[in-house]
Amino acid sequence: MPAAWTPLTDADYTALTERLVEEIGDEPLWIFAYGSLIWKPGFASIACKRATAYGWHRSFSLRIERGRGSPAQPGLMMMLSRGGRCDGLIYRVADHDKREQIESALRRELSNKDSLSTFRFLPVRTEDGGTIPALTFWAGGDSPRIVKPLQPLEEVAPILARACGHRGSCAEYLYNTVVHLAEFGIRDRNLWRLQELVAKEVEAIHGEAPTNAADTLPPDTSARLN
């Protein structure tokens, strides 16, 4: 962990968990997934459905030097930035299990105190027209790791094509997100364009033609993407 970080302690996680449990009260707990939480949530759920966060959009704006990046070759991870809309999924946690699963989600998403301003309950719209609060991670905030202003996709792609760490590469992270969103019939235009740009960068670096993302999708989803 970088020396400048102040890691969260067990007591911090407990206090944050209790705060969120109190905030949600007796209402159902839903967690909004727009990136890797879709395909690797790290918490237990009992239901899942599509939902949209209005006023936010996906952006590769979180600078990382570990996980899928390194100090020598920093990467970028997704977060939610202001403006637009974000289509994703919400997962419901069992009522009796809120405390344990909130702490699991916190430990997955947050490791140090510079991230304490980046999670919140966001109102999301479900397919039936209802609006519910959903716990969302990395939505805005003032972490020094957030890159501002937003970078154009043409500048993000070379970073994602090169950054890699002990958890894998940023290119793999993007690809997994695109494919798993497609399985739910969700196409984020910017992500799909970014996937094309990163694939071209990878081909230029390694001299090999990458697999077409659409070719790996289940038949019922590839049709929806055209």
From TrEMBL:
Q: Which Pfam families match?
A: ChaC
Is Lyase given among the entry's keywords?
A: yes
Which is a GO BP term held by this UniProt record? glutathione catabolic process
Q: GO molecular function of the protein, one example?
A: glutathione specific gamma-glutamylcyclotransferase activity
* UniProt KW keywords: Lyase
Identify which top EC class this enzyme belongs to.
lyase
GO cellular component terms, alphabetically, are: cytoplasm
Source species, domain of life: Bacteria
Give the source species: Rhizobium wenxiniae
Protein name, UniProt field: glutathione-specific gamma-glutamylcyclotransferase
